[in-house]
DNA sequence: TCTGGCACTCCAGCGGTCCGAGTGCCAGCA
DNA sequence: TGCTGGCACTCGGACCGCTGGAGTGCCAGA
């Protein structure tokens, strides 16, 4: 149908225009700026239909149209074309991320990069512990009855916990314990740690059992919220920009939600590294994110996502561009983590 | 002089009133709310003098007076009394910080706590590496020519770096190296590491020398900016609150400066754990902080501050309360770090 | 099925007015 | 000498009404 086709082109034009100008877009402006081949009057008719169907809306009678959440959703699913990054952007990414010195650094740079590329608030999750594998498990005696357990994962995360041990320990005992634990856990996915732990205790020499039990217990504790997941946030300054324009009341609830982390982590829980997820406006259950959109994707070398990253911004955002940026950064982060 | 004395009481009242109401304060309101024992007319005369001297100013002719930076400075130095925290606040602090599981957790909780207590943006610096001592230095072979060096300090910081080693290494060599390094560095302040390194290389067995050199070099690298200093920021949502009221243009430059970290770190460089530092408005060299005040103090168990923490907010802030909160939190953080 | 024309609506911006808060000054009083 | 009450003055913010322009919906005609 030539009809429907044009109507969709009108919708696309409305979204694009509104995203770039932030003004409700009228039929005349649309006809002038986009080559739709018809007069403003015809566009008006199409707009009336689009409004009827819920894709666009009028702030008030004598204003232009603005896309609704439904309109953005349709745009993202059906109308937007992948916008490849410019060569300059690609080299910028490489330059920015190269020379990162450790995981903290990689993620810190990523979040800044993402914020800069998209001009939105960027969010990067640390690699989930349970999906990482143990690279090394170190024990440092603090006193005779306390050990510092340091867990180093293959993704570069380091977690430390103090373990209160039930019996006094000597340096050699600790060394023995360390060897045993590393023999068991090194290379294993942390998700499997809970399976291995009981067998390990039973199989251990008698004098080590209480120690093994204490350390394993602590190890398992680190695998639950909240230490399991961590988040880096950047580019909040981008919210201050057009705050009044984009967020009706204030950006306060949004900033609070971001600092809460939990909200974002819940959104991130669903990411996977194959496809970019977009969550628009009212689709977000959390109230504070109701006026915002969230674009995210998982990163990780293989099939399973180690963690997620994304951007949060007004529903009026450049979805195509942000999706491309998010995906590109995720890919680089994945590579970097695979290397080290 | 009874004169001067009353004038100062007027200034104090102006600051207090303006801080709590955010309205320029007039002579009548002042006479009504504060028991100054004189009529509005007299207060007006005092105000004229205070304005003459530069402590207060009028936004426009028919408005009340507002403290200037100089006024706040005087208030902080001479007029404000220490405001002890309420019992509820004290227990809140303990409750909040107890149960912290590692350094990251302690600092994360501190920053949230501080933001909540003061309703300002809170900033907490990680313990400076060079002022920390080595608790343990771990080496994990990644491949025959690459080692992962993990540095654990007595303050709980963990830094990791990949060391490219010039020769292929075996497990035993690594063990030897680890023992040697720990024998030398464990317990030593990192600031002294650069002194010890050369001697260590020379004193090492011949076959270890290139390795020792490589690892020491990497170790020294971690002691310079930017990894030397790290920052946690929280409570940025508090900026969104009365943004229009407190920050004329927008909060954007301020948020950017905070994310830069460098700016804040420079301010933090001067902290020491004995006294709270207050930097008001124009006193801050950095342009973005020109309309803001910064209240900070060092934390640390002993004499030397391990790091700093503080809050950033509008010059119109509750200095007495914020100073008390900052100091209290710093004290707890100091204790917590000393314990572990 | 599209187009141009037309009447209609409604917001944003502008200028003018008014009110009240706050001031400075001055004369009188302790 | 210092405090007070009175008074005239200033000025910004709120309120109001107007107008212009952008944008729409509808309709008749191509």
Automatic annotation (TrEMBL), chains A, B:
Keyword list, A-Z: Repressor, Stress response, Transcription, Transcription regulation
Xref: SUPFAM superfamilies: GAF domain-like (SSF55781), Winged helix' DNA-binding domain (SSF46785)
InterPro entries: DeoR_HTH, GAF-like_dom_sf, HrcA, HrcA_C, WH-like_DNA-bd_sf, WH_DNA-bd_sf, WHTH_transcript_rep_HrcA_IDD
GO biological process: one example: negative regulation of DNA-templated transcription
tRNA processing in keyword set: no
Claim: Repressor is one of the keywords in the record: yes
UniProt domain HTH deoR-type: residue ranges: 36-63
GO MF term set: DNA binding; DNA-binding transcription factor activity
Record-annotated Heat-inducible transcription repressor HrcA C-terminal domain positions: 105-321
Entry function: Negative regulator of class I heat shock genes (grpE-dnaK-dnaJ and groELS operons). Prevents heat-shock induction of these operons.
Recorded family membership: Belongs to the HrcA family.
PANTHER family: HEAT-INDUCIBLE TRANSCRIPTION REPRESSOR HRCA (PTHR34824:SF1)
The protein's name in its UniProt record: Heat-inducible transcription repressor HrcA
